Amino acid sequence: MEKSSYKLEVKIGQVYRHFKGNYYFVENVAYHSETQERMVIYKGLYPRDDNHSLFVRPENMFLEEIPERPDNITGQKTRFALVTNLNIDYTKNVH
Length: 95
Prior knowledge:
Layout: E1 15-18, E2 23-31, E3 38-44, E4 54-58, H1 59-62, E5 80-82
Protein backbone atom coordinates (compact mmCIF):
# COMPACT_ATOMS: atom_id res chain seq x y z
CA MET A 1 0.00 0.00 0.00
CA GLU A 2 1.36 3.40 -0.98
CA LYS A 3 1.79 6.00 1.74
CA SER A 4 -0.34 9.12 1.36
CA SER A 5 1.43 12.36 0.56
CA TYR A 6 -1.21 14.27 2.56
CA LYS A 7 0.42 16.30 5.32
CA LEU A 8 -1.50 16.67 8.55
CA GLU A 9 -1.57 20.18 9.91
CA VAL A 10 -2.80 21.30 13.28
CA LYS A 11 -5.98 23.40 13.34
CA ILE A 12 -5.40 26.77 14.98
CA GLY A 13 -8.12 27.87 17.41
CA GLN A 14 -9.28 24.31 18.11
CA VAL A 15 -9.24 22.07 21.17
CA TYR A 16 -7.15 18.90 21.20
CA ARG A 17 -7.02 16.08 23.75
CA HIS A 18 -3.70 14.58 24.82
CA PHE A 19 -3.59 10.78 24.98
CA LYS A 20 -3.29 11.06 28.78
CA GLY A 21 -6.67 12.83 28.88
CA ASN A 22 -6.06 16.57 29.34
CA TYR A 23 -7.42 19.18 26.92
CA TYR A 24 -5.43 21.91 25.18
CA PHE A 25 -6.30 24.91 23.02
CA VAL A 26 -4.07 25.51 19.98
CA GLU A 27 -3.15 29.20 20.07
CA ASN A 28 -1.09 29.39 16.90
CA VAL A 29 1.72 27.93 14.80
CA ALA A 30 5.20 29.45 14.83
CA TYR A 31 8.30 28.64 12.79
CA HIS A 32 11.67 27.70 14.21
CA SER A 33 14.02 30.55 13.28
CA GLU A 34 16.83 28.28 12.06
CA THR A 35 15.09 25.25 10.57
CA GLN A 36 11.68 26.71 9.63
CA GLU A 37 10.08 23.71 11.38
CA ARG A 38 6.42 24.32 12.25
CA MET A 39 5.91 24.59 16.02
CA VAL A 40 2.51 24.36 17.73
CA ILE A 41 1.81 26.89 20.48
CA TYR A 42 -0.84 25.51 22.78
CA LYS A 43 -2.41 26.22 26.16
CA GLY A 44 -3.57 23.78 28.82
CA LEU A 45 -7.25 23.99 29.70
CA TYR A 46 -6.80 22.72 33.23
CA PRO A 47 -5.11 24.01 36.41
CA ARG A 48 -1.51 22.93 36.98
CA ASP A 49 0.47 22.90 40.22
CA ASP A 50 3.46 24.52 38.48
CA ASN A 51 1.30 27.34 36.98
CA HIS A 52 2.69 26.62 33.49
CA SER A 53 -0.02 26.97 30.89
CA LEU A 54 1.58 27.82 27.52
CA PHE A 55 3.60 25.19 25.64
CA VAL A 56 5.38 24.70 22.32
CA ARG A 57 6.04 21.44 20.51
CA PRO A 58 7.10 20.55 16.96
CA GLU A 59 3.97 19.98 14.86
CA ASN A 60 5.13 16.57 13.64
CA MET A 61 5.50 15.46 17.27
CA PHE A 62 2.15 17.04 18.25
CA LEU A 63 0.34 14.98 15.59
CA GLU A 64 2.49 11.83 15.65
CA GLU A 65 1.12 8.33 16.04
CA ILE A 66 1.97 6.73 19.36
CA PRO A 67 2.52 3.07 20.17
CA GLU A 68 0.29 1.23 22.62
CA ARG A 69 1.19 2.20 26.16
CA PRO A 70 -0.40 1.80 29.60
CA ASP A 71 -0.77 5.56 30.22
CA ASN A 72 -2.86 6.05 27.05
CA ILE A 73 -6.14 6.38 28.93
CA THR A 74 -8.02 7.70 25.89
CA GLY A 75 -7.12 4.86 23.54
CA GLN A 76 -6.35 7.36 20.78
CA LYS A 77 -3.78 6.62 18.09
CA THR A 78 -2.04 10.03 18.10
CA ARG A 79 -0.35 12.12 20.79
CA PHE A 80 -3.01 14.83 20.41
CA ALA A 81 -6.42 14.32 18.80
CA LEU A 82 -8.76 17.04 17.56
CA VAL A 83 -11.88 17.27 19.72
CA THR A 84 -14.98 17.67 17.60
CA ASN A 85 -17.76 17.06 20.11
CA LEU A 86 -17.24 19.29 23.12
CA ASN A 87 -20.09 19.23 25.61
CA ILE A 88 -18.59 22.29 27.33
CA ASP A 89 -17.17 25.25 25.44
CA TYR A 90 -13.68 25.29 26.98
CA THR A 91 -12.61 28.05 24.59
CA LYS A 92 -14.67 30.70 26.46
CA ASN A 93 -12.03 30.92 29.21
CA VAL A 94 -8.97 30.89 26.95
CA HIS A 95 -7.12 34.22 26.82
